[in-house]
Amino acid sequence: EKGGYEHFMLKEIYEQPRSIADCMRGRLDAKNGRLVLGGLRDYMNKFQNADRIIITACGTSWHAGLVAEYLFEEFARIPVEVEYASEFRYRNPVVNEKDFVIAISQSGETADTLAAIELAKSKGATIFGVCNVVGSSIARATHAGSYTHAGPEIGVASTKAFTAQISVLTMMALMLGYQRGTLTESKYVQLLNELEKIPSKVEETLQMNPHIEEISAEYKDARNFLYLGRGYNFPVALEGALKLKEISYIHAEGYPAAEMKHGPIALIDEEMPVVFIATKDNSYEKVVSNIQEVKARKGKIIAVVTEGDTTVKSMADHVLEIPDTAEAFVPLLSVIPLQILSYHIAVMRGCNVDQPRNLAKSVTVE
Ligand code: F6R
Predict the structure, then answer these.
(1) Of 56, 91, 220, 318, which has the fewest Cβ atoms less than 10 A away?
(2) ipTM of the complex
(3) What does 145-207 look like in DSSP terms, one character per residue?
């Protein structure tokens, strides 16, 4: 059932080229410049005219929501708020009929997310679900939705569900931007073509596995890890840190790289591995200077970079190269080496990778 893999988590990491393709199948047709999400059809008007998009979720799904905030604001120019379901529901939030709420959940059973949906619904908002499990409670509680079609995810640490969530949210943002006219036809078509190449670029990224395994051996005994990224890679830093802590039990924190100087920099010494996501994008130069600051304090640097990068390569202890793509699609690639890194470290520490202590696959308690 693990298809020859030692753990479900590794199998699911390796399934991502296919699960992302499955998620796009029948929806994205780049050649003909077409993108259709069936679940959105009846609600496109509401979506297009929303004053605001509120995204609610927990854990890894909340990280996918953060990526979506960047996507929706960049492509569709609608303000977005991303809310932990557990905070949103308990603070008497301001919500009304003009709000479009997106609830993201792999299991579709997370109690806090379900309660947040019921609350927003009672205030008249339109609720759209992005779920993996067909027929789940959240899928049923929403007005409409698009499934992620990633297939069953058995490993407790979410991997392929996360990239499928981002794939659906990316398609939503592109459709919305095109309909609203905030995304030009030529840019839209160019992005559709780039999106179609993502599964094969994920495949290429997976080839780093043996290299990441070697690096993992060097850092498996670390007591702390810092993950830093900016822009689209900030949520990826949070997700990388979450993956490491939940399965290897190493303390890890993710931060926006620019926030480092406001506190976390005090932690840096030769014992502190820092994972930078430093791909070639708008904030590249800034991230490079953060890398220099860490190096000056003798921190160990593992950097995820764009293929062919030489600047970061000359500074970092280790580089993990991912294929070039549109800035907005980078999370779909940059998260892959971080999933693999946490996997190997956890295995080397003798942890129960698929069923980490104290965690459950669906959190049905509030
Ligand atoms: C992380 C993880 C959890 C879930 C969270 C939400 O790897 O598995 O953080 O992401 O419990 O679960 P869903 O998406 O099922 O609502």
Answers:
(1) 91
(2) 0.98
(3) E---------SSS-SHHHHHHHHHHHHHHHHHHHHHTSS-HHHHHHHHHHHHTHHHHHHHHHT
